[in-house]
Amino acid sequence: MASTEDTATAARSPGVGIGPLDRGLRKLGLTMGQLCYAALALTVVSGVVLATAYDPAQPLASTEAIHGAISFGFLVQATHNLGAHLCIIALLAHTIDQLLVGAYRDTDSAVWWRATLLLPLIIAAAFTGFALRGDGDASAAHAIAYGVISSIPLVGDDLAGFTLGNPHGNLNTLYLHHVVTFTLLPWLIAIDHARRIWSGWLVFAAAFAVTTAAALLYHPGTSAIGSDVQGPWYFAAVQELLRYLPATMVALIFPLLMIAMLGSLGHEVIGRHRRIAWAWLTIAGLYLVATFITHLLGLLS
Amino acid sequence: MPAAADDDLPQRRRWLTGMAAIAFTGGWLAIAMRVASSVPRASLRSLHTKLRHAELGKLTLLARVILTRNDRDELIALDRRCPHLGCKVGAGQGNDNLRCPCHGSEFSLPDGERLSGPATRGLHQLEVTIDGADQVVIHGLD
Q1: Residues in chain A within 8 Å Cβ distance of B33
Q2: ipTM confidence
């Protein structure tokens, strides 16, 4: 018979089921959640190294110095960059996996909400990191995000200034949020979610090896100002849709709706869990297909 | 009946705690946003360029401003920020018009009127003067 403590822990634990993706990965001794956690740890470690050479008052000059003038700087930067991509992909895969097995049924609503918040926070961390490069694409992405947030009625300008700083000034505010709000906060949530401080050396070593090997093969430089803007892959479809639809709808209402749908699954009172989960999976799937096609076409053009 | 009321109690307490947490966080955010927005930002009301008026061509792109000339050879200064979402507008194909590299809005030369794309209006025109040393001075930047 389970003790009261066991029962309480089981009620709070996220994702008691094993999803189809995790079933495959377990043969390698890891899970999608662990891989995501390891990628997050990798970006934090590589980010600490990068921070010694990065200057938010001179973002482009310091990024170019990291790429060209510092020994192995390009490798650390590319590892940081690819680690963030791995973190997003693993987190998306983990979310899809957990939705497929209906993990929300066995998870406390507060725990589920905190896990839900990881998705926008990790994407925000990756996006602010992208914008911190200070090159043509990064400056444009920063300006677009500022424009989108400032389009919110009443609080838009204040909120944009608070979260993104001045897109035509230095990047101190953006840097602060990249390091503290969007990295430390998700790490704290991840610690609470996984019930451990460290991802484990084995999975960290695997993420490090894969990411560094990929970084040796792929380490893009900075982009010129004025050429056609190529945003981060996860926002490729958003960028395309912004040509035709209002910014508030595409970049605010749609993501907030997706977060609300995902978070609401943790509440038993909502009912219709299965329908909401499948609706979320379908919309997310369509978005991912659209974003990959758009990004690919952007790379080919 | 009392048992049912007792069952409701923790849930009600959790709901109240949640509401209090949201109100507390919201209050802090509102204060923080006010503080952040009151921090003086780098502002540039007028830009004294080192460009000589006589030497300027038909189209000059500066970091924040586009300088063009109209048919009467008068200088026109346009804010480079696209009115759609704030990207920096650049020269279009063949320098015949101006184009935003983010979402493809196009603007006419030399006056910056909207031609096509998601921007709903043209580029903002700035006041431009020439100082005693024939150097271009741009006013009205924020």
Answers
A1: 155, 158-159, 161-162
A2: 0.75
